[in-house]
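User: Can you help me understand a structure? I only have the sequence.
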Amino acid sequence: RVKRRLSRTCLTAAVPSLHPAAMGGASSYLAILAICGFLSAAWLATKISKFAGVSSIVLEITTGVVLGPRVFGLISSEYAECQHLRYIDCAAPPDLMDRLRNNERLYDGLGTVYNMGLCPKEDYHIDDGHDGEHVDVGHAAPEGGAEGEDGAHRRLSAGGGSYATIEECLVKSCNSMVSEECQLSPGFFTLVGHAGVALMIFESGMHFDFEKAGQVGPKACAVAVLGTILPFVTGTILTVIYGKPMVPDAVSVGTALAPTSVGIALRLLGEAGVLQYDFGQAIITAAFVDDILSLVLFNILFSLQGEFDVMATVVNPIIGVTFMGIAMVAAVKFWPKAINDWIIPRFAPRTGDFKVSSADEVLFFIMMVLLIAYATTTHFLGTHLWGCFIAGMSFACVDKVGHKGHAHHVWVRQTKRVTSWMIRIFFACTVAFSIPINELLSFDAFWKGSIMGIGPCILTKVFCAPFMGRAKFVIGWAMVGRAEFAYLIAQMAAAGDMIDSDTFSIVIWALLYATIFAPFTFRKVLDRYVAKHCAAAGEVSPDESADGAH
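Assistant: Let's start by predicting it. Here is the structure, written out as tokens:
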């Protein structure tokens, strides 16, 4: 594969008249122009979506799919794919068994896996079949193996997998190795997209209202628990019914369906002017707790890669929850006083006309330090995103005299445009470039994704607040929206070889259903509820029953 690429490179160099740069010399200008055109198209997709009053996610993903390397190729695969994926070939050569019998060298990814001892030849029948005997060449020896579904013996490899043949062991171990390398060193656009999601999750944490959460907390937490567990369980079960393994495939799908988009609920509640009502705060609190629970699930999910590890799967999440509890107490009791009374007063205010005050610069610096510190801490506990959210919550109570939410204002002022572009790149590049076009457009993926989208993805959230009285369907539809985090889990599960391309396509269809229909339906249900209950009463508690008095 590498040789073929080198041959094409040499041919291009030998025949310069066939190369687009022949008229202007060797230059990166065309690549720059292509990237500018792609980003402009993604930006235009965002603006068209906002003009139409719909979520920009769908058009951004569509733009990435159509203009990406798999269709029109405006973005070259060099910028869209992990380099390990491009240059490490895990395909088994036709003469693989002959090479193993004759102890000949294996090349590329398979050779690396074999030399690492992940698939010992001694664990499998490698025989030339002489003396007229029939030999099941390359299959696992029965000693110590497990019986597979097809009756073939399977062996646990040194890499932790269970394989029936040495070819299966080599190929799948190689794919797993490449996947791990690509998670450590992803493509450029993927890296930018992941950074954008981390910043967005940090900002989401800053919206958490501890005072309102204390008022509506118990029932909102119950909504969040149901809103997390129901899609997780039903998504997992449906994936198993589709014929996929429980772990890690089905669990990955269930985890991807669990998170709720706080951003969509915040925006629509703010536009309706009901964010201050109890049912509005119940929605926001439930959405935040839902995201916290989803982060815990996300942490556990990616600890399931390889063999079961008690430390990674059990102990680390417990440590993470404990750390989050301590950080939440510090967010209310420590950080507001430490920042406003101890740290900022030590820096003299600037004299002159400056757009950003020294106090705001110090505050922004503290945010960045705490973001990195908390993200690094939870990275070693499973996922940095958990720390990003906890760090954001730490500044939810840092206000300025006469200006509630000052910390969030400082953060948005410095990062709004950067974060917006990163999130746009996440959907148009990170997610879109990962989508297998053929599988996504297949009828099988569409009908399975439709069932997954209508059932586990939408209806489980709609009915997650049955005890919230008249506001139950408003709260339920508010929980349906999906955004960055859900797509990130699906994309990382696919990149980590935890779900195959068929399953990934099904999940994308399911999430698109929620992304498309949730804002429309939630806005309609919310407007009807506000007109019927809030306009006359001025305040509606979420636990009032349908026949209760105002």
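Now, to help you interpret it: Residues 1-19, 129-137, 143-160, 538-550 have pLDDT under 50 and may be disordered. The longest strand covers residues 153-156. Let me know which part you'd like to focus on.
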